[in-house]
């Protein structure tokens, strides 16, 4: 099978999965994120998810299996109500917040990392006492507020909404000041600092295994978010 025909096959399977009735849904998979006019991400983000190749075909097959096994998905986690509330308050998609929690703690509020990060969103104690962060509501309120701060911080440096979200995720994982330094380093080294792909080689060179961890975190959260967007309404 040629790469071109493989691309058509992937696109056809994707359309069948997203619009099983054969008609285009009048309701988008994900509408504009509240509180911002730069993150109209639904089709832009989903379109990035299916490059031609074996990985794309495997992912489409996984989506099909999940749809067949769980045709009516109602909630990602027991914390959906507070996640929705705080995500809306901070201009975030609740499914993105859920994807972050999935990879930070696997929805376990009692997790404490070796570095001292606590709870569902692995928040480090600071302005909020450590014992309060074990509470899911407090943890999610604190984590989503920080995500919103990161979005505002990196928005002027990102080429578009999708890139801004990748910067936000990287900053959440490695630290906002560290990522800002990497953006400046990418600029001096001749890579495009407005795209995450321009930051990645600088990050890997500067941080070694830590850089690989951040790159994997961004990729994994983005993949999980896209999958949640297919199965759960905004």
Question: Your description of this structure?
Answer:
This protein has helices at residues 3-18, 42-47, 54-69, 80-89, 94-105, 136-154, 161-174, 176-188, 196-207, 209-231. It is mainly α and 234 residues long. The protein is globular.
CATH fold-type name of the largest domain:
Lysozyme
- Strand runs, count: 0
Overall shape:
globular
CATH architecture of the largest domain: Orthogonal Bundle
Instruction: Kindly estimate the percentage of residues that lie in beta strands according to DSSP.
Output: under 5%
Mean pLDDT: 79
- What structural class results from the helix and strand content? mainly alpha
Along the chain, the helix and strand elements come as HHHHHHHHHH
Distance between the termini: 37 Å
Major β-sheet annotation: none
**How many separate domains?**
2
Low-confidence stretches: 3-53
Rg for CA atoms: 18 Å
Determine the fraction of residues in helical runs and give it as a percent range: 55-70%
DSSP helical segment count: 10
**What is the top-level CATH class of the largest domain?**
Mainly Alpha
């Amino acid at each position: 099978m040629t790469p071109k025909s493989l691309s058509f096959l992937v696109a056809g399977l994707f359309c069948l999965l997203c619009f099983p009735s054969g008609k285009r849904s009048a309701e988008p998979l994900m509408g504009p994120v509240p509180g911002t006019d730069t993150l109209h991400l639904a089709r832009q983000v989903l379109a990035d998810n299916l490059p031609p190749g074996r990985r794309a075909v495997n992912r489409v097959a996984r989506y099909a299996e999940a749809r067949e096994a769980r045709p009516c998905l109602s909630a990602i986690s027991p914390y959906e109500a507070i996640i929705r509330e705080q995500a809306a308050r901070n201009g975030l998609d609740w499914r993105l917040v859920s994807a972050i929690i999935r990879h930070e703690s696997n929805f376990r509020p009692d997790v404490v990392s070796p570095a001292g990060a606590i709870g569902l969103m692995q928040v480090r104690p600071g302005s909020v006492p450590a014992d309060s962060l074990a509470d899911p509501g407090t943890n999610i309120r604190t984590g989503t507020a920080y995500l919103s701060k990161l979005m505002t911080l990196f928005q002027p440096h990102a080429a578009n909404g999708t890139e801004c979200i990748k910067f936000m995720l990287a900053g959440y994982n490695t630290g906002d000041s560290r990522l800002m330094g990497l953006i400046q380093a990418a600029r001096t080294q001749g890579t495009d600092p407005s795209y995450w792909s321009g930051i990645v080689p600088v990050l890997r060179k500067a941080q070694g295994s830590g850089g690989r961890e951040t790159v994997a975190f961004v990729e994994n959260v983005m993949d999980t978010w896209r999958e949640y967007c297919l199965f759960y309404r905004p």
